[in-house]
Amino acid sequence: MGAPAVGSVRSRSLPPYGHSYGPGALPPEAPVEVTTRLRPVRERRTGRTLAAALCAVLGFGLIGGALAGVWLAAAEPGKPVEPAGYTEAKDLWHNAPVDTLFPRTLAGPGAGPGGATRTWTRIVVAPDAPCTSAVLAKGLLATVRPLGCERVLRATYTDATASSVITVGLVFTRADAATQRTLGQDLTTRLGADVPPALAGPGTVAARFGAPQRAGWWLNAPTDLPVVVTAVSGFADGRTVDGGPVSADRAMTANRTDATAQSGLGHEAKGITERLVRLLRTAATSAAKENAR
């Protein structure tokens, strides 16, 4: 299978490397003449040389132009190459099992402060909901509604110590690939303090998780999936946070001493969105492979 390794084929006229011909023996002599005599080379004419050079330049120009056309077509904003599984991802909200989108247990290696490992356990799952202000912050709702906001799925997790809670959301849209790529650029910065709503769970450690208890939050709009992933974290004991919720990137800034930063709630919010995006990619790719069979 495959081509032989370089150097594995030896000329039949030559012995293997290291072969000995015996005392006083010499290798066989090559024939005196093994090629025909070369014809005399005529003097080059300047006109022919210039013509040949011109043809070469034109040839390279045509090839380069064709390649440039391909690159420009691929990079044209209105006609991007759609990522694998992109179409299938639009329907994951009703095609994929809830345990696929929101696993009962979600591992987060290196997701905590200083690269600490986090493990989250699902404690609440809400029914899928339409895109309204009850489940989406105003700024995000105004952003995704023109894209054909399809459905919102939400769940709440707690960490291994049951001291913090995080509500995560999956916002599915009908955005095309070009629009999604634009949407994914600095979404959190453009929306400002657009904090996602919390999802409480009666009878759970998230029973007192409401708007006043929100501490850290994050939005993740992957460029290869028509989804926006949201997260908002808070303390499980129902305490409010002085100064209100802050985005994960601010909470993760070095030398911050506020409760959100010290508790790692910014890390929690950002880390869990990254894990959910990976799960969505896997689910979308699997769906695409199934459809291709």
The whole-angstrom Rg is 32 Å
Based on DSSP secondary structure assignment, what is the total number of beta strands?
7
Give the strand order, joined by hyphens, for the main sheet: 1-2-3-4-6-5-7
Helix content: 25-40%
How many distinct folded domains? 1
Low-pLDDT segments, ≥5 res: 1-42, 54-76
Give the biggest beta sheet: 7 strands, mixed
Mean pLDDT: 78
Terminus-to-terminus distance: 28 Å
How many helical stretches?
10
Sheet/helix structural class: alpha+beta
H-E string: HHHHEEHEEHHEEEHHH
Q: Indicate the proportion of strand residues.
A: 15-25%
Q: Given the C-alpha coordinates, what overall shape results?
A: globular
Region (Disordered): 1-30
Keywords: Membrane, Transmembrane, Transmembrane helix
Transmembrane segments: 49-74
Give a structural overview:
The protein has 293 residues and is α+β, with helices and mostly antiparallel strands. It has one domain (86-292). Helices cover 33% and strands 17% of the residues. The chain is built from ten helices and seven strands. The chain has helices at 46-75, 86-89, 92-95, 98-101, 138-144, 177-183, 187-191, 248-251, 259-263, 265-292; strands at 105-108, 118-125, 149-159, 164-173, 214-220, 227-235, 246-247. Strands 1-2-3-4-6-5-7 form a seven-stranded mixed sheet. Mean pLDDT is 78; it is low at 1-42 and 54-76. Keywords: Membrane, Transmembrane, Transmembrane helix.
